[in-house]
Each structure stands twice: as structure tokens, then as C-alpha cells.
Protein: KH domain-containing protein
Amino acid sequence: MPSTPNYLELVKFIIEPFLEEPASLRLDIERCKENERLWVRVAFDDADKGKVYGRGGRNLQAIRTTLEMAAASAGRSLYLEVYAAENEGEQRRTRRSNGNFEGTERRPSNRRPPAPRQLNN
Structure:
């Protein structure tokens, strides 16, 4: 049986370099033994969100891929969820590797579509 990585230390090692204040990083892990799944929850200051997510979410996707591959090598599946820091109290919008958004609902826009134009001939 392959050795099991220390997921919390691995997440800390990967995410801390992106943070201005590494002490703001909060980590939690939930293990489900029946189906070998792990849920890793991270929270950090809102000011660091742009660095962790990266342009178009590329950094966060790379972090997720790295963690998922580490878990797969140990025969597990891993899901990473990003939350707002404790002092903000509200869950942030995160994207799972399957492209679905977690933690938010889509609200209808108050904007109206532009009126059709008349063409002058």
C-alpha cells in the first residue's frame, strides 16, 4: 500500500508562498473512510485571493491538480474548497475541478438587454 501524504502540510507548503500573511491561512481536513475521499478546506485573507487564484484561476487549478494527484497516488480522491477568512464570515465562490461552482447561487441580473437598433437606409 502506498504511503499516505500529510495533506495539511502539503497544502500549507503549496499555498503559503502566495500569502502576504501566512499566519492567516486556516486549514481543515475531513476524511471519509468508506469511499477514501478527503475534503480539504482552506481560508485566507481576502487581500491574498488574487495571488492564490491567479489569472483566470490558473494558480488555484494547478494547486487542485497537484493535490488531487498526490491523493490519487495514495488511492484516494481529494476535493479542495476555498472559504473566506474567519473574520469575513461568508463563503466565497470556488470552482471544483469538474467546473461546477460551489457555495454561490446565480442571481438574475437587473440589467436589461439593449433596445434593438433601427438601421438607416
